[in-house]
Amino acid sequence: MSWLKRDFFERDVLEVARDLVGVELVWNGCSGIIIETEAYAVEHDPACHTASRPSAREFVKSKPPGTAYVYFNYGMYWLFNLLVKGGPRDGLILIRALEPKRGIDVMQRRRKRDKLHELCSGPGKLAVALGIEGAHHGTIMAGRGRPPGCGLRIPSDSKHEVVTDIRVGISQAVDFPWRFLSRHSPHLSVKHGKVKAPDVKAPRRPE
DNA sequence: GGGTTGATGTTC
DNA sequence: AACATCAACCCG
Q1: Which residue places its CA closest to the C1' of nucleotide B9?
Q2: What is the pTM of this model?
Q3: Is strand C within 7 Å of residue A158 (CB)?
Q4: Does residue A185 sit in helix, strand or coil?
Q5: What's the pLDDT tens digit per position in A70-79?
Q6: Which is the CATH superfamily of the domain at A6-182?
Q7: For strand B, which nucleotides have at least one atom less than 7 Å from a protein CB?
Q8: Where are the domains of chain A?
């Protein structure tokens, strides 16, 4: 049982996203096994923040691999990502679901839910459960500078059948098969990725 | 079950 | 205006 080091995040973003399934995310007294991730690539991926946000490009440029990229979405939820950098493809990996392990009572209180499969079965949910907020943007999660309470650990008994799927909840590059999940886990977020149907209520383009 | 909707605020 | 979400609510 050892902490992931910085070089884990110095590889191709898809490889890292797949390898994170089965890894324990440890966060200030709470933890869970990562069972679902999504990869976003810095280059040639319209769904990645770097495609539209200068601040995200600056983050990638200035931070070391293994740094937490935390942002606020839909006016309500913090989403937790990890920076991959220094391999063939740089990117950000969204942590989408955990199997709760440690600090379950604390997570139940924060989530106001008792059932284990409702604690961390989604990226917004797991941030609430772990107590992740904007102040944690930039937390170093591997290598030198990592706070003692936070990190990524390889469990001794990691047995996961990793399945690939398309990414969830986006409207750009919807068909990239860059979602990775542990098959049959009861702690996943949504069941299957689906290509969004055209929105009939979308405003028509003026003549 | 599945589909729909409102809550909410940051970024560009 | 769009947005890497969630839970409550409807209907059946």
Answers
A1: A75
A2: 0.92
A3: no
A4: coil
A5: 999 999 999 9
A6: Methylpurine-DNA glycosylase (MPG) (3.10.300.10)
A7: 7-12
A8: 6-182
